[in-house]
Amino acid sequence: MLLVALVRERVHRPVPRSAGPVPRGAGRLPRRFWRATAVLVTFSLINFPDALLLLRLREIGFSVAALILAYVTYNAVYAAASFPAGLLADRWRPPRVFGLGLVFFAAGYLGLGLVHSRPAAWALLAGYGLFTACTDGVGKAWVSRLVDCDAQQGRAQGVYQALSGLGVLGAGVWAGLAWHTDGRLPLLVSGTVAAVLAVTLLATAGRRDKQTGVFRGRGQRIMNRFLDR
User: Fold this and answer.
1) Could you list the residue range(s) of the whole structural domain that residue 166 is in?
2) Is residue 89 very low, low, confident or very high in pLDDT (cuts 50, 70, 90)?
3) How many domains does the chain have?
4) Where are the alpha helices (DSSP H) in the chain?
5) Among 2, 12, 54, 102, whose Cα sits 20 to 30 Å from the Cα of 198?
6) Which value, in Å, is the radius of gyration of the alpha carbons in the chain?
7) What 3-state DSSP class applies to 156?
8) Domain-located, residue 36
9) Which of 87-96, 160-169, 200-209 is least confident?
10) Residue with the larger pLDDT of the pair 185 and 152
């Protein structure tokens, strides 16, 4: 916090603009934003808090020290992979990188729901860090690209974060209620749904026509509305 005092910013004086008519609907977020946000919020409903993943590791047999080290490993992978994931999102479309992150999410959840080996669980949690790296900042960038007006960027991010936060809250509630003794059921349910979402995002993003940006086929055109940049 104290390092903020060392920051020096240049003062930018806004160029005065002549007042003109405000376009109709200028204060509204575009439809493509709401379509993509609906997909992201739907995913948040199965993305329950990481505390339950740690509880699963505890039930597999992790000691407190091993649990802490495993979570440190997850954060190290997340930190190391975030920058490459951001670069990849600039080269690819964000939905494709987000879909790749869902592959790691599905692998982590399904794996933790099935394995009983501590080394395997440790590796799965480390791989789960790739999911966070491919979705956290990339999701925000995806939402940002869906809004043309700079004045709407803060509003768009606020709406997206609020709805996603409510989705994660709901995910924590239903997963906690369904946890029972070992938590395998919610892990398998979330992992399966994430796998379906991942295949859908990657398949539709991969088939998108690079020149026209339009999917071929009736079903693909529907998904193109969700993935429209």
Assistant:
1) 30-227
2) confident
3) 1
4) 31-44, 50-60, 64-91, 94-114, 118-145, 153-177, 184-207, 218-227
5) 54
6) 20
7) helix
8) yes
9) 200-209
10) 185
